[in-house]
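Hi P.,

Sorry for the delay on this. The queue was packed all week, but I finally got your sequence through. Input first:
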Amino acid sequence: MLSGRVALLVGSGDDSISRSVALTLAMRQVRIAVCYTERDEDIGAAVHTDRLIGAIRDMGGEVLALPVDLTQPDTVGPMVNDVLAAYGKVDILVSRVGMRWDPCVAAHLPPEDIDATVQAEIEGTLQCIEGCLPAMSENGWGRILAIGPFEPVCWTIGSSASAARHFLSLQFERHERPYNITFNLIHPGWAVVGPGRPEAALAAARHDPAWQARRHATAQDVADAAVFLCGESARFITGSQLFFAME
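Then the structure:
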């Protein structure tokens, strides 16, 4: 049972996977903290986050939103402290942190740009993990999920960032397992990303007929996988990678 748990979701405010994960967890009485990244070129993130907050509150859920700039490491600690102040704990961390890059140009990037992009892919996730671990260790329970950005596995940056996140999961898995903390990765493949309507996402979270008739992986499929990995049925699954079909 996840009722009463606290989930910290970090990522873009207009990402459909983050939205579906938040709604699906909220339907299971998980208290939600949405910490979205603000970018100058992404002024709609706050608007989409506000819509998500409204949808969660309309269903009777508890939620707060906190903007964070993960390019500034000193902002992560205060972000986690704000969640602790509001809810008293952090049980679940869902990291949807990642650079927005065009895979079509990856083959033409110089090595230094590839290195910088891969570093940016994992640094934000690492900062969030380090911020949440003390509270999880103290409570003897934690679930960490890193959901990759859209990353065609045939491209250099996508493969390198994926390998780096897997390395992180294996290192944390060995050290944190005694504290009942798991760390798993989800690769969403072609699952829908980008802005959308919370109403449609909520209908999918309820597994309505339109979602039941789907022909390809959706953001809700990723959310259902995330909820499973957070639950007690998956308490002994850690250091794993879950790949969605590249259809």
